[in-house]
Amino acid sequence: MSFRHPEALLALLLLALPLWWHRRRRVALPPYSFSALFLLRRSESETRLRRWQDPLLLALRLALVALLVLLMADPQPPRATLPTTRLSLALVLDDSFSMRRLEGRESVWQRTLDRAQGEVAKLPPASECSLLLGGSPPRALAVRRPCAWVRKRLRALATHAPSRGDGLLAAYRQAQHIVDASSLHERRVLVLSDWAAHVDFPTSAAQPRQGMALRFERTCERAKQENAFIESALLEARSAGAGMRSLRVRLNPGRAERLVLRGSSGFSWAAASLSGQREIVLRLPEEALRAPHPAAWLELEGNDDLADDDRFPLLLREEPALQVWVLNGAPSANPNEDEVHRFMRALLLAPRERGRFQLRSVQAAELERLQADHADVLVLANVRSLDARLREQVLSFVEGGGGLFFTLGEQVEARRASAEWQALLPARLQPSLGMPTARPLWTEGAALALGSEASSLDGTRIQRYFPLSPLDKTAQSLFRLEAGTALWVWRKQGRGRVALLATTLDDAWNELPFRPGYLPWMSRFVRALAGDPRFPRRAEVPGTRLHLPRLAGVSVMEVIDPRGGSRVFTLERQAALNLDTQTEIGPYRVRVGPSARELHEERRLAFTLAAPPRESLLKPGRVPPSSTPPAGPGRIEQAASDTPSPYLPFLLFGLLLLWLGEAWMRPKAENRGSA
């Protein structure tokens, strides 16, 4: 037993008052006078009777004082026998790729699930529990549900393969909101992770809210410093000679000894020994690119704790060229005077390691097939106007993920262009200005973010341009003039991008085509403008939203995962198939056709999902400090102090009985004393 106010026990010293009073009352009794021996016998009998009654009255008074003192001290039962308090617990589990690694015979993910099961099993009856996964995106599997239901979900997660977990911080904040909305007094958040270096969780985020306890635990035992994994693989566009092609592989070698390239049938196309290199170039025959299915695997051989990232899927196929359509508003027979000649020449001479450009000079009527022919970028160079129907086609093309590049010139009228292209232009055009002296061009931060080549255009002289005012709120300036006037801007539009160059694409109003950085910058800029490619080109990480374009005559698409399972999708009016639930690592095949009975393999739509390289870094990071909730009204500490003592009814009942007994005995004792 414990006391909420133990200092009140000092009042037990008041027990001396009844003792002193009864002692004084007995000494002060008057002496008896008697004249015969029979009176002495009567006095002795009455004295014996008084000795029996007075101690009982004394005991009643002592018990009465003791109960009053206990009532002030507020006794509490032992903690082991306290009634269990319902509480709200939120479990946040890190399901990043690094949780797959083994420690002994058990994975860190399974150990995390066991730890979560143990925590839920310890909850008092009628408590509520929430379960969240910190993947990408974070997922709430249970929100304030009964503990038995959450334990069932945890058992089901034993077959879940962690794939990507960069949403741990978002899941933690969501858990705080869920627990904070609970009506229960005691609330807790428990975050379980391996806390590897890739976990983005600032210490400042681990601040508890009022009445909320936070706990962060590392569920792995050993600190892993080294892990072998493949970062990327790029099939170079140029031939390596003698019917061979080069595959450039970047990797973290770790303790791996050998790198092998295997086809989908298991045939080994190439191999190389490793001795600490971070980049390897494999030579493979071109016949590997003509296999029925382009899927292949890069495999690292050697001892490793995280085996799942030792295999990297890739597609052995020619990378589709980036389709660039150019509509020239002022064509010329002389290439040196043509509006787009130098621009197209720059793209054709761009390095092919990043993929090829396929240029197509089109007429206005051909814009109706922008989406059907899967163009990636449309360039409108000095185009005076387009009719409303074609403008709608261009708008739909950009909203669907295409890139649009406006360049201006003599053919463009500012007011007309601003009115016709109001839904697309990132800024409103003002009438063109010619300057007596050329002004230099300066690079903005948004251009440098695309590539360092942008800085080589600094100082380019501009003789004439269209002022851009005002800019759209979402527009970014890539280049500006000396006075701060934006000259080259772009912005997002739906899934695509729109860029506007307020001068000519050729050298009529500027010196851009003569700058050394013009060729690499234009290549970099057009690739960025294209955004997500129409056809899958690189390995994506699990959880990435994929857009597979709908080909002409296709109504049904079948996606076959690495294990052979298939999902069939019927396309009605969609221009593309959106996939956002794929998590299995490996190559995916795609079959298309006008109906489910007429499907055929489509190599261009095949794609791969690979382990996220960032989450293969197993270097341990910092675990945020756990914390208890700050004191606050109506929360955990306050709730304990507001709970009444279970002994209170018994103390009050005993106090009432003693008071009644003392009141009944007191008159009799006083009558005997007066007698």
List keywords for this structure.
single chain; 675 residues; alpha+beta; 9-stranded mixed sheet; 5-stranded mixed sheet; 12 helices; 34 strands; 25% helix; 29% strand; elongated
Written description of the protein model:
By secondary structure, the chain is an alpha+beta fold. It is built from twelve helices and 34 strands. It has a nine-stranded mixed sheet with strand order 18-17-19-20-27-26-25-22-23. A hairpin with a 2-residue loop joins strand 10 and strand 11 (244-252). Helix 3 (108-121) runs antiparallel to helix 4 (147-156).
Strand content: 25-35%
What is the helix tally? Answer: 12
Distance between the termini: 46 Å
Number of strand segments: 34
Main sheet: strand order: 18-17-19-20-27-26-25-22-23
Helix share bin: 10-25%
Q: Ranges with pLDDT <50 over ≥5 residues?
A: 45-53, 630-642
Oligomer state equals single chain
Overall pLDDT metric? 81
Global shape: elongated
| Largest β-sheet summary | 9 strands, mixed
Radius of gyration from CA coordinates: 42 Å
| Helix/strand/pairing category | alpha+beta
Describe the structure concisely.
By secondary structure, this protein is α+β, with helices and mostly antiparallel strands.
Describe how the helices and strands are arranged.
Blueprint: E1 2-3, H1 16-27, H2 37-73, E2 75-76, E3 87-93, E4 102-103, E5 106-107, H3 108-121, E6 128-133, E7 139-146, H4 147-156, H5 168-180, E8 186-193, E9 212-218, E10 229-241, E11 244-252, E12 258-263, E13 268-273, E14 279-285, E15 295-301, E16 311-315, E17 322-328, H6 341-348, E18 357-361, E19 377-381, H7 388-399, E20 403-407, H8 414-420, E21 427-429, E22 433-443, H9 445-450, E23 461-465, E24 468-471, E25 476-481, E26 486-493, E27 496-501, H10 518-530, E28 546-549, E29 556-560, E30 566-570, E31 576-579, E32 586-593, E33 600-601, E34 607-609, H11 636-642, H12 648-674
Parallel strand pairs: 3-6, 3-8, 8-9, 17-18, 17-19, 19-20, 20-27
Antiparallel strand pairs: 1-2, 4-5, 6-7, 10-11, 11-14, 12-13, 12-15, 15-16, 21-24, 22-23, 22-25, 25-26, 26-27, 28-31, 29-30, 29-32, 32-33, 32-34
